[in-house]
Amino acid sequence: PRINTTEHIGIEGDVTINDVWKVIRTALTRKAPGPDNISTQVLELLPISALKILTELINSSIRLTHFPAPWKRATIVTIPEPRKPQHLPGNR
């Protein structure tokens, strides 16, 4: 779906290469990779030329208010709490 361009989405100006690098560096390395299987450890090894392309891609997506379907996918795994009965109706 397209974003309503009259709504403020919290982004002032273009995303910079430094912004992208900060997000990569502060991402939790113990998190599992997403559906693309790209880990944060791999992203940290990207050369500056790849970071430039990634930054351009992000900015184009924001400008066009279009986010590719793969960017919207996630794999969610529920982990039950230990020693908590699984049959209770409050467990989701």
UniProtKB/TrEMBL annotation:
Name by which UniProt lists this protein: RNA-directed DNA polymerase from mobile element jockey
